[in-house]
Amino acid sequence: NLTNGTRLLPGARELLSRLAASGVALALVTNKPEAMSRRILAHFGLETYVPVVVGGDTCKTRKPDPEMLHHAMMLLKAEPGETVMVGDSAADIDAAHAAGVRSIVLSGGYGHGRAEDLGADVLVTGLEEAGEAIAAWQGAGTEHASLSPS
């Protein structure tokens, strides 16, 4: 039942396609197990857009510890100043802060509490807005994004 109840957020495929086409290197950083996360990406045909997957069992620690983001950045050969974390939970935003990367929080996701209280650099209500924020930062030198469902 891994993919039976799983649905993509509106605009997810389009955003990943657009980011990948514009040269943004993408990673999925999730506390879910890596193998299961790869199967979900493959089910939706997204694995070509997101070649790097760091799961909850990839590293010794999980978000909100920054180790998973550091690992993704190492695999992407990215620096914190050129990396953006898109997430929907306190663990995502706390990991971004600890790793020294920019953060975008998506309201209405899996996270508990109010998204506007998490301290992200940008609050968005949909993935189209996240894409706009990444594009603005990309013009300022950001070339890597980590997309992280909780």
Could you explain the architecture of this structure?
With 150 residues, this protein is an alpha/beta fold. The protein is built from five helices and six strands, in the order H-E-H-E-H-E-H-E-E-H-E. The chain has helices spanning 12-21, 34-43, 67-76, 90-99, 127-138; strands spanning 25-29, 52-54, 83-87, 102-106, 122-124, 144-147. It is globular. The model has no long low-confidence stretch (mean pLDDT 90).
| Largest sheet composition | 6 strands, parallel
The portion of residues assigned to helices is: 25-40%
Series of H and E elements:
HEHEHEHEEHE
Number of strands: 6
> What are the low-pLDDT stretches, counting only 5+ consecutive residues below 50?
none
Termini distance?
Answer: 18 Å
Assign an overall shape. Answer: globular
Strand order of the largest sheet: 2-1-6-3-4-5
Would you tell me the overall average pLDDT? 90
The percent range for strand residues is: 15-25%
Put simply, the count of helices is 5
**Which structural class do the helices and strands define?**
alpha/beta
Rg, rounded, reads 14 Å
List keywords for this structure.
single chain; 150 residues; alpha/beta; six-stranded parallel sheet; 5 helices; 6 strands; globular
Question: How is this fold's topology laid out?
Answer:
Elements: H1 12-21, E1 25-29, H2 34-43, E2 52-54, H3 67-76, E3 83-87, H4 90-99, E4 102-106, E5 122-124, H5 127-138, E6 144-147
Parallel strand pairs: 1-2, 1-6, 3-4, 3-6, 4-5
Compact summary:
With 150 residues, the chain is an alpha/beta fold.
